[in-house]
């Protein structure tokens, strides 16, 4: 009887999902905006290649959340009369906007000062671009496939990607490998985008490259499958939580086992990485769902919820502001000209060690956006992309 009552009381919209999304975006802003890229605490850095740090979890968690959100936002449209044409067009429009925002971040601010050079060297892959692609294909697959077929597609993607990366000889190299510049994905990126349009820190490969977007779609489908299960009304919450914990733990274990042959690697977005990070995301969401939505312990959630409801907006603007600050110059105490961002950051380095100053700057940046988003939330300003 108590379980039935809890099931009836479970909300249609997941506050825990907004909380999880907000925490993920806040963490993303924290790791993307250190005061000094040369002074960063180890957990706030990406793994140099194979392996997984806490920072490496952030992007797959967000794509997982995109998948869960699709199941909740489009669930009623899956069986709508008259087909899915309008829903797919709406999803395409949103994906194009996200992709365009990502390109704009890559172009800004040079597009206003040296537009020709900016377009000649613009990085085409990127975080928002990958979110756009994963969202669009995950949405279509959700609308057009049954739950069983979604799982089959998920498994096929992981298996096919593993086979491609570990068995197909790379042209010009002669053998399959998983190294930074000589793997199959890097070769495809250089062949299609050319080095001018890849990640500027590497130029010969891209962490958001074309081929590795395929398993990133699998991460989105992992979230879709979890979202479908969470929405089921014929299962009581306690059973849902138990199965999600078990499934998440199994995925983590499978990822760690596969890591022995196909290493966990964010830049390659390996199949083992999909299972490992998707499993962890499932466990975290299950825990948040039980505490926040079922037990109703939610007083602590607002700082993260305000991030969650305007996630794309704050991610885009948080990338725009530092670029804008670097456009303006001010005079330093010694008379030299420095960027406005460097001048502001000097206030932290004057009394903190380099690594703590770098962290303090990042935390201050997160808190600044928290204030802005809190005001927007209270005024019910939610910018949907």
UniProtKB/TrEMBL annotation:
* Keywords tagged on the record: Acyltransferase, Membrane, Transferase, Transmembrane, Transmembrane helix
What domain of life does the UniProt record list for this protein's source?
Bacteria
Q: Which GO terms describe its molecular function?
A: acyltransferase activity
Bilayer-crossing regions: 57-74, 95-112, 124-143, 150-170, 209-230, 242-261, 273-292, 304-321, 358-377
Looking up PANTHER family in the UniProt record yields: LD22376P
Instruction: Write the protein's name.
Output: Predicted acyltransferase
Its taxonomic path starts at: Bacteria, Pseudomonadati, Bacteroidota, Sphingobacteriia, Sphingobacteriales
